[in-house]
Amino acid sequence: MELEPVVEKNLNRHLSVAKEWFPHEYVPWSEGRTFDGPLGGDAWSESDSKLPEIARTALVVNLLTEDNLPSYHRQIATLFGPDGAWGTWVGRWTAEEGRHGTAIRDYLTVTRAVDPVALERARMTHMTEGYSNNHDDEILHTLAYVSFQELATRISHRNTGKVTGDPTCEALLAKVAADENLHMVFYRNLLAAAFELAPGQAMRAVADVLADFQMPGAGIEGFARKSVAIALAGIYDLRQHRDEVVVPVLRQWDVFNLGGLDADGEIAREQVAAHLDTLERQASRFEERRAARAARRAATS
Ligand SMILES: [Fe+2]
Ligand SMILES: [Fe+2]
Predict the structure, then answer these.
(1) What's the farthest any 2 CA atoms get from each other in the chain?
(2) What is the Å distance from ligand 2's center to 299 Cα?
(3) Residues within 5 Å of ion ligand 2, judged at the Cβ atom
(4) Residue 267, CA distances (Å) to 196, 203, 209, 247, 273 in order
């Protein structure tokens, strides 16, 4: 309730800067062909796809992540409630997210970029599993999580677009990424207000969320293998996670300078600093391993 005026202000801000766009304009419909099954068209085959394998992997992970929207909706609808600006935001955000899965699926199906049967089976499994995280019932934790997660998703979509080598797909994913960026700004601004109202609690939320941060698609079958491939391709890796997601958001909240922390808030801030150091070591190690792997590959080819 204390954040409600901030929600209203940022909802209005969001509505004034969000630009309407139309997913159907980014799908090359005339390339489409009827599939096998009741309509007797052609079955999908590997040779239909014009996209590099890594682009297909990333697109499927991104799409399955978007597909799980009902779970995310349930989570924030329960937490934010149906009333006032909070409720309006839940509806608006859900409507914007809804076009991401629709648009990407239309593109992949029309261009025969991925196996539609495997995709549908993966969707069924993933959505049946649903999504939850460790802090489902805590508002500040949720606001902290989505601040990082929306930015992570923005980067992942944008870099996936780049590796497709298809300007149409890249343009589509740039539109999706622009949506994710505005979502990040909304949530980040809310948590910034929480830092003013209750700095210790906000810092605790940030520390807890960073400590066990996982991408929302972590429950996808084969996610570990897929996320390594995505990291090796530079679409989303630990360096980007640290330097392009975590650090910029923390800087916006000015976490290392702000005052007014209670004892637990101070402990939480130290945990955030230690986490950044750990991420730095992990990111450097990953970059070294990736460079060594590339050198080995160059030597053998
Ligand atoms: Fe999305
Ligand atoms: Fe989003």
Answers:
(1) 68
(2) 41
(3) 150, 180, 183
(4) 18, 9, 14, 19, 10
109 Cβ contact list (under 8 Å, min separation 6): 32, 116
Ligand 1 centroid, distance to 70 Cα (angstroms): 12
DSSP state of 135: T
Q: Dump pLDDT digits (tens) for 220-252.
A: 999 999 999 999 999 999 999 999 999 999 999
pTM of structure:
0.96
> For residues 260 and 199, is the Cβ–Cβ distance under 8 A?
yes
Distance (angstroms) between ligand 2 centre and the Cα of 182 equals 8
Output the pLDDT for position 197: 97
Q: Hunting for tokens 């293998």 — which residue is that?
A: 225
Which residues, in sequence order, are bridge partners of residue 42?
35
End-to-end CA gap in the chain:
62
pLDDT band at 133; cut points 50, 70, 90: confident
Expressed in angstroms and rounded, the spacing between residue 98 Cα and the centre of ligand 1 is: 7
Centre of ligand 1 from the C-alpha of residue 294, in Å: 32
